[in-house]
């Protein structure tokens, strides 16, 4: 039994010590090295293609920004045209009704005409300025700067519409009040 145990111990020792004793030079696989080099070359080609794609996408983004600026300019111009049309329509219709009313005194006609004329002159000057901005290259403006000015002028035209609407309503209220006052003063009294 002792010999059997010592024999098994010796066999176990030999089996375990054998892998530890086997040392030598490592073996390199040239095909593995070549495939790694090919992989690096392919990666560099993909990187170059990605850089080209990034440049292309940046150019497309710039083009989209330019188109967006043009669309903003067009929207601002459309809004300004609508506002100026409202101004002209108000002046043509409502101002004529106000001035032809028998309840507006002759000395007030000049004041009413002047206040409406000032607003219309400002509107026409703004239109001339916008025409210069859009057609002339003398100012050398970027699309963003031009859009900002157009937005500013759009807001000004909205303010002019609000102002002329307020003035028209005020003069119509004056006419209504004077008409009511005239009816009260000239009514027939029945007792």
Overall description:
The chain has helices at residues 2-21, 30-100, 106-135, 143-185. It contains four helices and no strands. Helix 2 (30-100) packs parallel to helix 4 (143-185). The protein is mainly alpha-helical and 191 residues long. It is 86% helix and 0% strand. The mean pLDDT is 81. 9% of the residues are buried.
Describe the SSE topology.
Layout: H1 2-21, H2 30-100, H3 106-135, H4 143-185
What attributes characterize this protein structure?
191 residues, mainly alpha, elongated
Distance from N terminus to C terminus (CA atoms, Å) equals 151 Å
Globular, elongated, flat, extended or rod-shaped: what is the shape? elongated
Mean pLDDT: 81
What order do the SSEs take from the amino end to the carboxyl end, as H and E? HHHH
How would you characterize the largest beta sheet? none
DSSP strand tally: 0
Q: Which spans have pLDDT < 50 for at least 5 consecutive residues?
A: none
Strand content: under 5%
| CA-based gyration radius | 44 Å
Helix run count: 4
* Structural class by helix and strand composition: mainly alpha
- What proportion of the residues is helical, as a percent range? over 70%
Quick take:
The protein is an all-alpha fold and 191 residues long. It is 86% helix and 0% strand. It is built from 4 helices and no strands.
């Amino acid at each position: 039994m002792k010999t059997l145990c010592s024999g098994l111990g010796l066999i176990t020792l030999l089996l375990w010590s054998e892998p530890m004793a086997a040392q030598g030079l490592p073996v390199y696989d040239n095909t593995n090295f070549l495939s790694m080099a090919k992989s690096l070359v392919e990666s560099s080609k993909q990187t170059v293609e990605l850089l080209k794609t990034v440049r292309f996408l940046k150019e497309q983004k710039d083009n989209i920004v330019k188109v967006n600026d043009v669309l903003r300019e067009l929207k601002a111009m459309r809004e300004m045209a609508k506002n100026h049309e409202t101004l002209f329509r108000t002046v043509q219709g409502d101002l004529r009704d106000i001035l032809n009313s028998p309840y507006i005194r002759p000395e007030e006609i000049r004041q009413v005409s002047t206040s409406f004329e000032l607003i219309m002159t400002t509107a026409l000057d703004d239109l001339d300025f916008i025409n210069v901005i859009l057609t002339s290259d003398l100012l050398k403006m970027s699309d963003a700067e031009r859009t900002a000015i157009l937005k500013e002028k759009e807001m000004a035209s909205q303010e002019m519409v609000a102002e002329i609407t307020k003035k028209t309503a005020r003069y119509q209220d004056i006419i209504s009040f004077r008409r009511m006052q005239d009816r009260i003063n000239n009514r027939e009294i029945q007792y």
